[in-house]
Predict the 3D structure of the following.
Amino acid sequence: MFERSHFDAVYARTSILDTLRQREYRRLDTQGQVYLDYTGGGLYPESLVREHAELLSHTVLGNPHSQSPTSLASTHLVEQARADVLRYFRADPDEYLAIFTANASGALKLVGESYPFAEGSHFVLVADNHNSVHGIREFARRQGASIDYIPLDPTTLRAPGIEPVLEAGMNARHKLFAYPAQSNYSGVQHPLEWIELAQRCGYDVLLDAAAFVPSNRLDLSAVHPDFVPVSFYKMFGYPTGVGVLLARRKALAKCRRPWFGGGTVKIVSTKADLHILADGHEAYEDGTLNYLNLPAISRGLALMDEIGVETIHERVELLVGYLLDAMLRLRHDNGKALVEIYGPVGTGQRGCTIAFNLIDVSGVYIPFQQVEAEANQQQISIRAGCFCNPGAGEYSLTHTAEAVKRCVAAATSDGIFDIDAYHDCLGSKATGAVRVSLGMVSNKQDVDRFLVFLADFCNRRGDPSYAHAGC
Ligand SMILES: Cc1ncc(COP(=O)(O)O)c(C=O)c1O
């Protein structure tokens, strides 16, 4: 329930974010943009780009890992960024390695291809995961590992009772358990306590933190997942093309890279047909690192420290509560609710993301594509579709395995899959959703403009010409 005095007090307490918005994000307000896609990507502060450009203009940087002064200058900045990443996440360098990747997906693929899946090993994952986590099952399957999904409660989109599934794999040799700290679909924050629980059952734990860390503290001195993928553009918007895999040394020692490439080996012999992998992070960083962009990571993390991720968390939580409350109160004149929210409708154990559909005055889903198109016209950036999270989508939109299989078969002819025919086959159910997500410099004006936009759908009917395309 929205309480004005509480709202005002927390809003004032987090006013450093309004100062930040005025200082660094004037472009949002001068252009009249409402940005509500922080789970898609964070927005960069102007000074981060400016200072990074200045660094590049005044420094001569060569390809790292050589002894020339320009190479050493790059190596120094790259290693500084690595140390800053470990420090930011409070990861003890004796326990964790920071392996730079292109993005969170790159980090996840490294785990998938290197984890010692084999006959008799086990991969357990929550249905609520990003596609780049689901994709790991294909590595597991190819090596003969068994795969188990933990289902979701269709109303809360939480995963009750993970223990029985974990316990079923107790006797497996190498076991990996993967879940997101925060769902990129529903915003559900799955318990960090699962890490220790799964490790006690002998699992290595992959905690996908990509959607969590932009507005939550991940403290790796308090929890100890074995693998943690992150994309930095989701935290502070710049640069794209840099992510990290934080990997526990103990878990990484079990892994085997399926290939070698530039920079990952101590020696390679063509005549003796042998290679010896480099140690530590070097064995996992293929080719030349994004060394010109890595220094910006240090600056971005310094900004997160200056603002305090706890402050971002507090502001975002406040605005999400306000938004959820107002969305649920939107009604047609016939008293029917306009908004159907997927997942938790309160702020407890949930983050900045809200997935929903609108239902028109006659009780029919308004196509999510129509909502997105109308938002675009008003300079409101939202996202629509399935958000690369098929599991949360299937549970929230109640698509059964049978319906999915039947419709894939119906939509496939001569080996060609027709996505429109697939969505036609799924019928009157919503085939995707709308997602809004708040972040570092979201403010009440953004939320209020979005609520005015939504309220305009009250008493209207959806436009059926959009209805058959899916996500
Ligand atoms: C929870 C989660 N995991 C992984 C990813 C993949 O991130 P990237 O596209 O940066 O590789 C995303 C991206 O949205 C995400 O939200």
